[in-house]
């Protein structure tokens, strides 16, 4: 398992908007305590405000925190990255696709004390036109 010193987000500047670093204080549910150490601008835009320094239960609703805690526990038990993909229908023709990969960081032989993640949001389907197409 890589450690925090193996990862420098500044080494991958093109990915910074979607990167997060999470500090793990406790993974036991329901008292899962995970805090955003770093949250890129894409995460801020998805949530609607900067979440850096905040615990997940201060940012998200209880069902979302429960789902996140289950993902974190899965990662901590297996010491493997976890991939998540969700979709949200925005209109009849447009779907938002959210993808996230989260990997454990910490000392070898121990539970992770951090998670490193990357978030991507994309749109699928036709986008409505803002102006009519020229005819002829």
Describe the structure in brief.
Helix content is 21%, strand content 33%.
Strand portion, in percent? 25-35%
Number of helices: 3
Radius of gyration: 18 Å
Identify the strand order in the major beta sheet.
2-1-5-4-3
Structural class: alpha+beta
Order of helices and strands: EEHHHEEE
Total separate domains: 1
The CATH class name reads Alpha Beta
Q: Please describe the biggest sheet, giving its number of strands, its sense, and whether it closes into a barrel.
A: 5 strands, antiparallel
Mean of all residue-level pLDDT scores: 88
From the N-terminal CA to the C-terminal CA, the straight-line distance is 61 Å
How would you describe the shape?
globular
Helix fraction bin: 10-25%
What does this structure look like?
With 136 residues, the protein is α+β, with helices and mostly antiparallel strands. The chain has one domain (14-124): Beta-Lactamase. Helices cover 21% and strands 33% of the residues. The protein is built from three helices and five strands, in the order ββαααβββ. It has helices at 41-47, 56-59, 62-78; strands spanning 19-26, 33-39, 82-89, 95-105, 114-124. A five-stranded antiparallel beta sheet has the order 2-1-5-4-3. Strand 4 (95-105) and strand 5 form a beta hairpin. 17% of the residues are buried. The model has no long low-confidence stretch (mean pLDDT 88).
């Amino acid at each position: 398992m890589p450690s925090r010193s193996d990862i420098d987000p500044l080494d991958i500047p093109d990915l910074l908007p979607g990167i997060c670093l999470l500090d793990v204080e406790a993974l036991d549910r329901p008292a899962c305590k995970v805090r955003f150490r770093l949250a890129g601008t894409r995460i801020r835009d998805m949530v609607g405000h900067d979440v850096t320094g905040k615990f997940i239960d201060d940012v998200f609703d209880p069902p979302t925190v429960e789902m996140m805690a289950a993902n974190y526990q899965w990662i901590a038990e297996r010491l493997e990255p976890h991939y998540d993909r969700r979709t949200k229908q925005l209109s009849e023709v447009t779907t938002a696709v959210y993808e996230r990969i989260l990997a454990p960081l910490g000392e070898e032989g121990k539970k992770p004390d951090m998670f490193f993640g990357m978030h991507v949001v994309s749109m699928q389907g036709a986008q409505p036109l803002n102006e009519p197409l020229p005819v002829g």
